[in-house]
Amino acid sequence: MNWTNAGPEIFYLAAGLLFLLLSLVAEPNPRREHLTALFLASVGILVCLVSAGSQGHLFIRAFRLDIFSQVFKVLLALGLFLIICICGDMTDIKERRHQVFYFLLFTGTMALMLLVSADHLLSIYISLEVSSYSLYILVALRQKQSYGLEAGIKYFLVGSFSSAVMLFGMALLYSTSGTIYLTDMARVLPGIINQPGVIIGLLFTLGGFFFKLAVFPFHFWAPDTYQGAANQVAAYIATASKVAAIAVILRVAAFAGQGSVYLVHCLVILSVVSMTLGNLAAIVQKDIKRLLAFSTIAHSGYVLLGILVLSPAGYSGAIFYALALLLMEFTAFMVIVELASDGRNLQIEELAGLHKRSPIMALALMVSLFSLAGIPPTIGFAGKFLVFVAAIEKGYVSLVIIAMINVVISLYYYLIVIKAAYLLEPAEELPPLSLSFPKTLLAGASAVVIVVAGFAPYWLVRLAQTAAQALIWSR
Amino acid sequence: MRMASAAFPYLSAILLSCVIGMLAILLIPPDRKVLIKRVSAVFSGITLVLSLFLFLAYDKNLGGFQFVENVPWIPSLGISYFNAVDGFSLPNLLLTGIVFFTGVLTMWELETRVKEFFALYFLLVTGVFGLFMSLDLFFIFVWYDVSLFPMYLLIAVWGSTRKEYGAMKLTLYLLAGSALILPAVIFLYAKSGMNTFSIVSLMQPGILSPGAQKFAFILLFIGFGILAAVWPLHTWSPVGHVAAPTGVSMVHAGVLMKIGAFGILRVAIMLCPLGWVYWANLMAVLAATGVIYGVLAGLRQTDLKYVIGYSSVSHMGVVGLGLSTVTAEGLNGAVFQMFAHGIMTALLFSSVGYIYDRTHTKLIPELGGLSRIMPVASAFFIFAALAGIGVPGLAPFWGELVVFVAAFRTYPVLGVIAVLALVVSALFMLRVVQRTFYGPENERFAKLPDISLSLGIPRIILSAVLLIVGFFPSFLFDIIRTASVPFMSGLPR
Questions:
Q1: Residue A131, domain member (yes or no)
Q2: pLDDT by residue (tens digit) across A34-54?
């Protein structure tokens, strides 16, 4: 075993422990901690990039390193870095808890990195739990305890319920296939794929990941948790955690789900219900974080569409979609964090007059929302396009039409938000937002990246296709 | 299919001057309004000059696609940045150039949020130009949506009369259209099995099975038909026109609706000719209903902009009727009518815009006797209204004539009904003119100034185009024929 292969995980664990140590010995100093975290997170991206080429196994094949897992590790590192960028002034988490906050953020990311490379049912379970537990606490850290605690407990209850379901599913899979390695299942399962035990095992196992991705019927936590968690934590859940969930669903579905008609049928239903329910429920929301939570449920439906076709094109579409989701959700949350500088929950009508107060933030918000709605030329459209191409190539024309109708529905509530930012005048005159240069740069850069990557996605598509190949080759 | 590559990328130059114009506007401080307008005029002028140049430089003897630019974009998916013009797209490019330039001049008096307005306006037109010149299905879809989403803000921020409702309705309707177009486009891509989105490759006979063509055609027809205001999917259009600010109404009714008709022609008809033949009867019935419905609904309106909005529905019905005849003459007439109606509607909206800016009302009963108060401004409207009625010597006459001659052969009954409807429309248009511009004056407006020369320029340009094309229709027909005749003769029967 080559220890350097585990570079990213070791680095993030060490960074987390550093903050734990800091919380024991040093007085809290938010600015110092933020800069340290920012530095560590940017080094983390480098570490992930350096180890991007490594292949092989770790810990008696419990973890499998291939281009797929390494791409997702880079995405996660990028996600963590972006989230830490907007943690500059966290007013709704007590100052003395900031060190713990960063500790949990880094260890949570480490767990997500383990999750995307896990190849063993137990290692999947353990890394999923480690990441979930850091999130439960992160959600509950909010200063307004009534919000945070309620959200944390709801999150925890749904989470532990779905891990119980997942464990049951894993047990079924083990008992039917006789193996606990995903790679071996890819060999054994196709012969017995239509046995009831295998189908139920697969679905229940996926249930644990559906919880992470907020797919119907495991979506109940999302709106309350987004609303109850601090804005930065909600941003982390909406970005990094979702990306890892997409990765692990992809791996399990690709390795174990080949050739299963029933599984595909179930996924079709879950996908359609998720997108429809998410979009319809989002229409009536007043709180912008709740709105985004419901829209994420809808997005998980679109991602499932790419996964359920079980073809390389679909996988690469879903991988691309994960990247797109990371960027668009981050940009939307960045605006929320900036506007709600005292850490409150932002209502849609509070966006009124944003175009005057800060044109660049209004622009970033508009671009991210149009991207979420899937309007070209944005990265969100490119993601949808890849997924839809894969689905139609496999003959799911009607499914794509349903998805497109959902896109129309979703545009309605995104337009309501855009209308608030560009049209409504605030009841009382609000001062212009004073943005520091890095923040302006970040907002401008996110908007530009979303548009440019949507207009010329060639390299990103290539990357996604290469990563998807790793799911096919390596039987 | 003959393809002549371009020595200089003129088509990309048109797109680039839009994009650079937009970026330049974004860089100017918002309070330098005059500079912003001048920059807008210069860059929109460049696009007009370039599109006029292309129109004149196109080799009619050679025909086919010319000024081709083809760069692989995403090779693994068969997407390429593939631009070219032919006889169908050239009139539309020229139309866009004219309406864009005159639209900028018409909005010269705008004072609120000038910078954002012109930036969005340029973005909108970029999409329109891109769609008319693109031969790649992926890019056609992208341009369709690029031209769509600035609309929401343009109407909702700068519009009037139920602007938020109109903007939302328009955006959702048009996006619903794209919801049908995207699956259809990908369906054609997947069915061909050629891993290409290029229209030129996909339109070769025998690539797409008849069943696939029939299925894709109806999706594409409905999808683009929403934008072309095909009855009964037209309801967004009068509401949207009325709510939009003048310059946007001009682009919208003048050019954007043509995108719909052009999409039906370029994507649905050219890729799925068998589907076209199969569904032609349905197209004809819907188009004729649209002609009649537009006229009847227009009769009841008291708002000048609603009158124009419904007359647009009816005129776009004429375009649809031409497309549904499955003859070269029908296509000629339809494309000609797209151009003529674009210029005419732009002039109508432009004139109403001037009147509305002065009187702050568009209601016919409140106006009256305007021709004595502002004779020149009234003359522009009356001129455009006469063109709309189909007075010989003005451009729309030829489009309608050719379409109806073709329609009489294929659908005699529908043709007769549609012509009768247009006669009624002439009566009601004249009544609108009479009540608005003649009769007793409204005292409130007696002191209003007539249109100044600088504001008159865009209206003069539009009127001149109507006259020139009206007197020399072969100017357009010769070019359209280079596309329609080879296409119809190559059609599998």
A1: no
A2: 888 889 999 999 988 888 877
A243 part of a folded domain = no
The answer to whether A422 contacts B156, with C-beta atoms less than 8 Å apart, is yes
What's the confidence (pLDDT) of residue B486? 86
Structure tokens at A76: 């996660």
Does A375 contact B189 at a Cβ distance shorter than 8 Å?
Answer: no
* Closest approach of B167 to chain A, Cα-based (Å): 10
Mean pLDDT lowest among A186-190, A460-464, B230-234:
A186-190
pLDDT, mean of residues A201-210: 89
Average of per-residue pLDDT across A276-297? 91
Q: Distance of CA A123 to CAs A56, A109, A116, A126, A181, Å?
A: 16, 15, 10, 5, 10
Q: What is the DSSP string of B429-488?
A: HHHHHHHHHSSSPPGGGTTPPPPPHHHHHHHHHHHHHHHHHHH-THHHHHHHHHHHHHHH
What residues make up the domain containing B292?
A: 3-489
How do residues B350-392 score in pLDDT, each as one tens digit?
888 888 888 887 888 787 777 788 888 888 888 888 888 888 8
pTM reported for the whole predicted model: 0.90
**Residue A445 touches chain B, beta carbons under 8 Å:** no
- A167 part of a folded domain: no
Provide the shortest C-alpha distance from residue A445 to chain B (in Å): 16
Option in A370, A376, A407 nearest B179 (CB): A407
Domain tally, chain B: 1
Considering only CB atoms, which chain B residues are within 8 Å of A457? 74
Q: Which residues contact A398 (CB under 8 A, 6 or more apart)?
A: none
Which of B73, B172, B180 is nearest residue A411 as measured by Cβ atoms? B172
By residue range, what is the domain housing residue A335? 260-475
Q: Is residue A192 part of a domain?
A: no
Q: Measured between CA atoms, how close is B168 to chain A, in angstroms?
A: 8
The answer to whether A404 contacts B187, with C-beta atoms less than 8 Å apart, is no
